[in-house]
Amino acid sequence: MSTEESRHVYRLHSTLELPLEDLRDHIADATYPDGIDDVEITRRNNTLILKAVAEDQSVSKYTPTAQLKASVTENRVYEEDPDERRNSFRWDEEEEEEIESELVEFAAFKGDRETVLQNSLLQYEMFLVLCEIASAAEKGTLTAISEHDGDLEATRIVDGETRPADIEVVEGPRDRGSGETGVNWRDNKFISD
Asked: What is the pTM of this model?
Protein backbone atom coordinates (compact mmCIF):
# COMPACT_ATOMS: atom_id res chain seq x y z
CA MET A 1 0.00 0.00 0.00
CA SER A 2 1.52 3.35 -0.99
CA THR A 3 1.74 6.28 1.42
CA GLU A 4 -0.77 8.31 -0.59
CA GLU A 5 -3.36 5.50 -0.43
CA SER A 6 -3.15 5.25 3.36
CA ARG A 7 -3.91 8.92 4.09
CA HIS A 8 -7.22 10.56 3.23
CA VAL A 9 -9.41 13.41 4.38
CA TYR A 10 -13.04 12.36 4.00
CA ARG A 11 -14.97 15.16 5.67
CA LEU A 12 -13.92 18.59 6.77
CA HIS A 13 -15.77 21.68 7.93
CA SER A 14 -14.06 24.89 8.96
CA THR A 15 -15.13 28.27 10.37
CA LEU A 16 -11.59 29.40 11.26
CA GLU A 17 -10.61 33.09 11.30
CA LEU A 18 -7.31 34.66 12.24
CA PRO A 19 -5.51 37.91 11.50
CA LEU A 20 -3.68 37.72 8.16
CA GLU A 21 -0.47 38.95 9.78
CA ASP A 22 -0.65 36.14 12.39
CA LEU A 23 -1.23 33.58 9.62
CA ARG A 24 1.81 34.82 7.66
CA ASP A 25 3.97 34.67 10.83
CA HIS A 26 2.69 31.15 11.57
CA ILE A 27 3.47 29.90 8.04
CA ALA A 28 6.92 31.53 8.10
CA ASP A 29 7.81 29.75 11.39
CA ALA A 30 6.02 26.43 10.72
CA THR A 31 7.60 23.00 10.54
CA TYR A 32 5.89 21.11 7.72
CA PRO A 33 4.87 17.44 7.59
CA ASP A 34 6.96 14.97 5.57
CA GLY A 35 6.32 15.50 1.87
CA ILE A 36 5.95 19.29 2.08
CA ASP A 37 9.06 21.39 1.54
CA ASP A 38 7.33 24.78 1.86
CA VAL A 39 3.96 26.52 1.66
CA GLU A 40 3.59 29.36 -0.83
CA ILE A 41 1.08 32.10 -0.02
CA THR A 42 -0.58 33.85 -2.97
CA ARG A 43 -3.22 36.54 -2.74
CA ARG A 44 -5.68 37.28 -5.54
CA ASN A 45 -7.97 40.16 -4.57
CA ASN A 46 -9.80 38.87 -1.48
CA THR A 47 -8.77 35.23 -1.90
CA LEU A 48 -5.73 33.71 -0.20
CA ILE A 49 -4.19 30.47 -1.50
CA LEU A 50 -1.71 28.47 0.60
CA LYS A 51 -0.13 25.94 -1.78
CA ALA A 52 2.03 22.96 -0.84
CA VAL A 53 5.49 22.78 -2.41
CA ALA A 54 6.41 19.09 -2.69
CA GLU A 55 9.72 17.78 -1.31
CA ASP A 56 9.70 15.28 -4.18
CA GLN A 57 11.50 17.07 -7.02
CA SER A 58 10.13 14.59 -9.57
CA VAL A 59 6.61 16.04 -9.19
CA SER A 60 5.83 17.94 -12.38
CA LYS A 61 5.38 21.68 -12.02
CA TYR A 62 2.06 21.16 -13.84
CA THR A 63 0.76 18.72 -11.20
CA PRO A 64 -1.47 20.66 -8.80
CA THR A 65 -0.50 20.08 -5.18
CA ALA A 66 -2.94 20.47 -2.31
CA GLN A 67 -3.87 23.98 -1.33
CA LEU A 68 -5.83 25.74 1.38
CA LYS A 69 -8.18 28.50 0.31
CA ALA A 70 -9.29 31.40 2.52
CA SER A 71 -11.18 34.61 1.97
CA VAL A 72 -9.68 37.87 3.22
CA THR A 73 -11.98 40.24 5.10
CA GLU A 74 -11.41 43.48 6.96
CA ASN A 75 -12.73 43.72 10.51
CA ARG A 76 -12.56 46.60 12.92
CA VAL A 77 -10.66 45.58 16.05
CA TYR A 78 -11.22 47.64 19.20
CA GLU A 79 -8.71 48.21 21.99
CA GLU A 80 -11.59 47.82 24.46
CA ASP A 81 -14.86 45.93 24.00
CA PRO A 82 -17.31 48.62 22.74
CA ASP A 83 -20.38 46.81 24.18
CA GLU A 84 -18.78 46.66 27.61
CA ARG A 85 -17.95 50.35 27.49
CA ARG A 86 -21.44 51.31 26.23
CA ASN A 87 -23.08 49.36 29.05
CA SER A 88 -21.01 50.96 31.81
CA PHE A 89 -22.70 53.77 33.74
CA ARG A 90 -21.77 57.28 32.55
CA TRP A 91 -22.71 60.60 34.18
CA ASP A 92 -22.09 62.57 31.02
CA GLU A 93 -22.23 60.75 27.70
CA GLU A 94 -20.90 63.78 25.82
CA GLU A 95 -17.53 63.32 27.51
CA GLU A 96 -17.21 59.72 26.35
CA GLU A 97 -13.99 59.24 24.41
CA GLU A 98 -13.87 57.40 21.11
CA ILE A 99 -12.58 53.86 21.52
CA GLU A 100 -9.24 53.20 19.82
CA SER A 101 -9.66 50.85 16.86
CA GLU A 102 -7.99 49.74 13.66
CA LEU A 103 -8.98 47.82 10.55
CA VAL A 104 -7.34 44.40 10.50
CA GLU A 105 -7.34 41.93 7.61
CA PHE A 106 -8.44 38.43 8.58
CA ALA A 107 -8.00 35.13 6.74
CA ALA A 108 -11.23 33.12 6.94
CA PHE A 109 -11.02 29.39 6.17
CA LYS A 110 -14.77 28.78 5.90
CA GLY A 111 -16.60 25.91 4.27
CA ASP A 112 -16.37 22.20 3.60
CA ARG A 113 -13.46 20.14 2.28
CA GLU A 114 -13.85 21.04 -1.39
CA THR A 115 -13.97 24.77 -0.53
CA VAL A 116 -11.12 24.91 1.99
CA LEU A 117 -8.81 22.00 1.03
CA GLN A 118 -8.32 21.43 -2.69
CA ASN A 119 -6.35 19.00 -4.93
CA SER A 120 -5.33 15.48 -3.91
CA LEU A 121 -1.50 15.43 -4.07
CA LEU A 122 -0.31 16.05 -0.45
CA GLN A 123 -3.90 16.65 0.66
CA TYR A 124 -3.50 14.86 4.02
CA GLU A 125 -0.27 16.76 4.71
CA MET A 126 -1.96 20.11 3.99
CA PHE A 127 -4.79 19.00 6.28
CA LEU A 128 -2.14 18.70 9.02
CA VAL A 129 -0.99 22.26 8.17
CA LEU A 130 -4.63 23.40 8.53
CA CYS A 131 -4.82 21.68 11.94
CA GLU A 132 -1.77 23.70 13.04
CA ILE A 133 -3.43 26.89 11.77
CA ALA A 134 -6.60 25.92 13.70
CA SER A 135 -4.52 25.54 16.87
CA ALA A 136 -3.16 29.08 16.34
CA ALA A 137 -6.59 30.61 15.59
CA GLU A 138 -8.45 32.21 18.48
CA LYS A 139 -11.80 32.05 16.69
CA GLY A 140 -13.59 29.28 14.82
CA THR A 141 -13.95 25.53 14.63
CA LEU A 142 -12.33 22.80 12.54
CA THR A 143 -13.98 19.38 12.42
CA ALA A 144 -12.82 16.54 10.21
CA ILE A 145 -12.79 12.81 9.58
CA SER A 146 -9.56 11.52 8.14
CA GLU A 147 -7.84 8.18 7.68
CA HIS A 148 -4.23 7.45 8.48
CA ASP A 149 -2.76 3.96 7.94
CA GLY A 150 -6.20 2.31 7.91
CA ASP A 151 -7.55 4.01 11.05
CA LEU A 152 -10.29 6.64 10.97
CA GLU A 153 -9.51 9.72 13.05
CA ALA A 154 -11.89 12.44 14.22
CA THR A 155 -10.51 15.96 14.63
CA ARG A 156 -12.19 18.83 16.46
CA ILE A 157 -10.40 22.08 17.25
CA VAL A 158 -12.47 24.91 18.77
CA ASP A 159 -11.07 28.42 19.30
CA GLY A 160 -7.50 27.11 19.20
CA GLU A 161 -8.07 24.18 21.58
CA THR A 162 -8.16 20.49 20.60
CA ARG A 163 -11.38 18.93 21.89
CA PRO A 164 -12.52 15.30 22.13
CA ALA A 165 -14.20 14.02 18.95
CA ASP A 166 -15.93 10.79 17.98
CA ILE A 167 -16.97 9.27 14.68
CA GLU A 168 -20.55 8.08 14.53
CA VAL A 169 -21.55 5.58 11.86
CA VAL A 170 -25.14 5.95 10.69
CA GLU A 171 -27.16 4.12 8.07
CA GLY A 172 -26.99 5.86 4.74
CA PRO A 173 -29.19 5.47 1.65
CA ARG A 174 -26.87 2.81 0.14
CA ASP A 175 -27.03 0.63 3.28
CA ARG A 176 -30.70 -0.38 3.06
CA GLY A 177 -30.39 -3.37 0.77
CA SER A 178 -30.49 -3.92 -2.97
CA GLY A 179 -34.29 -3.78 -3.28
CA GLU A 180 -34.64 -0.25 -1.89
CA THR A 181 -31.99 1.73 -3.75
CA GLY A 182 -34.32 4.49 -4.92
CA VAL A 183 -36.95 5.15 -7.56
CA ASN A 184 -37.45 2.45 -10.17
CA TRP A 185 -37.90 4.65 -13.22
CA ARG A 186 -38.78 1.70 -15.50
CA ASP A 187 -41.79 0.69 -13.43
CA ASN A 188 -43.12 4.10 -12.44
CA LYS A 189 -46.87 4.64 -12.97
CA PHE A 190 -46.36 8.43 -13.13
CA ILE A 191 -44.20 8.21 -16.25
CA SER A 192 -46.05 7.34 -19.44
CA ASP A 193 -44.51 5.47 -22.38
From this structure: 0.77
